[in-house]
């Protein structure tokens, strides 16, 4: 974080206070989970009620079923749910379920999509130092990690068709339903439906990584927003409003394999504290008007940032999907990963620092998250600060 890491003392609603007593409007929101803002009363009450009743039972309890039912009611095609603690963990059981079901090995992953930091999937997310995209994502990563991954450009249906033809070894196709990690880019028209059809024809599992999009771009995530059902979907971030909970949901016969030799484990999986948080978060998000309000607030922020670029006579693009907004200076379109990579993001850090000076806490890389706690007044203050930050950095 630029200019240096900040240390915070407390958060409430859309606000954060650092250890020096400075107040900030928060558009980082813990990098996404705080969809109700900080310490929403319904969340703290639910967790506070559970705390004296036990932290983890190492066995079943009612909230496992109650929250699973909330997810199955919300998410297209969800029949069963598995619990994990983080997105990175949950993501790993999905290819395992797909490999067990299909007897195949390989997995398709798209460039610029992020599925956590595991050895098997941290590939082709950002270019290597030599500018290539095919390499490993981390020093120390197993050098043969890419062996079973077919890395494709999102939207390269010809290569995908070829890979899924004949006696294919592709067990699963992984995708973020909207490319939130590299530009908040909605899927090109018909892409997800085409992926669904190609997977159906090949007997390959379609897996949506809804870690960002789940319960955010619609109550039913990307699947509901874009009208396409995956075989499996992975959730984390917004699911428990800031508590470490992740889930895999999907077709019953796939998930039931965990009772037939597919290992999925975790000491803290489905503990009652995080499930109390999830139950309360989903009840709040299911209230009428929440997602309409997200669209309106996100639209106001997107329009404000776009106007600010325009007023300064600068090129700049703003993408918005519900309460996730992406500004990209210097571009006239941001509709693919290559466009996202063409932005001088280190230079954008100067804007982030100017925003911070004006009490606006933002992510590097141009993404803004909104919560139910944000108001139109918050958005307007952020837009004014953005305008000033542009003046301070580019004149
Ligand atoms: N998948 C996606 C789409 C993500 O955005 C992230 C995290 O940002 C992950 C997986 C990994 O989740 P976690 O950070 O909870 O391990």
Précis, in short:
The protein has 395 residues and is α/β, with parallel strands linked by helices. It is 36% helix and 16% strand.
Rg, nearest Å: 21 Å
Largest β-sheet summary: 7 strands, mixed
Low-confidence spans: pLDDT under 50, at least 5 residues?
A: none
The first-to-last residue Cα distance is: 24 Å
Strand content: 15-25%
Helical proportion, percent range: 25-40%
Number of strands: 14
Based on CA inertia axes, which overall geometry fits? globular
Q: Order of strands across the biggest sheet?
A: 4-10-9-8-7-5-6
Which ligands appear in the coordinates? pyridoxal-5'-phosphate
Mean pLDDT: 96
Order of helices and strands: EEEHHEHEEHEHEHEEHHHEEHHEEH
What kind of oligomer do you see?
single chain
Provide the structure class.
alpha/beta
- The DSSP helix count reads 12
In terms of topology, how is this protein built?
Blueprint: E1 8-12, E2 15-18, E3 23-26, H1 41-50, H2 62-74, E4 80-84, H3 87-102, E5 106-110, E6 149-152, H4 157-163, E7 170-175, H5 191-202, E8 205-209, H6 221-226, E9 232-235, E10 246-250, H7 252-255, H8 272-285, H9 290-311, E11 316-321, E12 324-329, H10 337-341, H11 345-357, E13 360-361, E14 367-369, H12 376-394
Parallel strand pairs: 3-13, 5-6, 5-7, 7-8, 8-9
Antiparallel strand pairs: 1-2, 2-3, 4-10, 9-10, 11-12, 12-14
Helix pairs in contact: 1-8, 2-8, 9-12, 11-12
This protein binds pyridoxal-5'-phosphate.
């Amino acid at each position: 974080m630029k200019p240096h890491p900040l240390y915070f003392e407390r958060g409430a609603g859309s606000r954060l206070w650092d250890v020096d007593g400075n107040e900030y409007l928060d558009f980082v929101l813990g990098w996404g989970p705080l969809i109700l803002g900080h310490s929403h009363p319904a969340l703290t009450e639910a967790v506070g009620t559970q705390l004296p009743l036990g932290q983890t039972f190492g066995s079943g309890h009612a909230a496992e079923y109650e929250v699973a039912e909330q997810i199955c009611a919300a998410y297209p095609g969800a029949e069963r749910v598995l619990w994990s603690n983080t997105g990175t963990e949950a993501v790993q059981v999905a290819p395992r379920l797909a490999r067990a079901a299909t007897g195949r090995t390989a997995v398709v992953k798209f460039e610029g999509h992020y599925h956590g930091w595991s050895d098997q999937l941290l590939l082709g997310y950002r270019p290597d130092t030599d500018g290539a995209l095919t390499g490993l994502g981390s020093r120390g990563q197993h050098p043969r990690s890419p062996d079973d991954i077919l890395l494709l450009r999102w939207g390269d249906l010809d290569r995908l068709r070829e890979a899924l033809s004949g006696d294919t070894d592709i067990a699963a196709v992984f995708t973020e339903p909207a490319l939130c990690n590299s530009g908040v880019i909605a899927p090109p028209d018909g892409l997800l439906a085409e992926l669904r059809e190609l997977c159906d024809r090949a007997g390959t599992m379609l897996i949506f990584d809804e870690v960002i999009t789940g319960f955010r771009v619609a109550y039913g995530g990307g699947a509901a927003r874009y009208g396409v059902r995956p075989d499996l979907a992975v959730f984390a971030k917004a699911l428990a409003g800031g508590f470490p909970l992740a889930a895999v949901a999907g077709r019953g016969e796939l998930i039931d394999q965990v009772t037939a030799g597919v290992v999925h484990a975790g000491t803290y999986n489905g503990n009652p504290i995080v499930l109390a948080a999830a139950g309360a978060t989903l009840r709040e998000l299911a209230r009428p008007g929440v997602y309409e309000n997200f669209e309106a607030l996100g639209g106001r922020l997107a329009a404000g940032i776009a106007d600010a670029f325009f007023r300064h006579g600068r090129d700049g693009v703003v993408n918005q999907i519900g309460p996730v907004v992406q500004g990209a200076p210097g571009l006239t379109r941001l509709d693919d990963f290559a466009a996202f990579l063409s932005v001088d993001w280190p230079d954008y850090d100067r804007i982030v620092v100017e925003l911070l000076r004006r009490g606006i806490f933002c992510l590097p890389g141009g993404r803004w998250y909104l919560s139910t706690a944000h108001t139109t007044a918050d958005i307007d203050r952020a837009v004014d600060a953005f305008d000033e930050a542009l003046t301070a950095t580019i004149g």
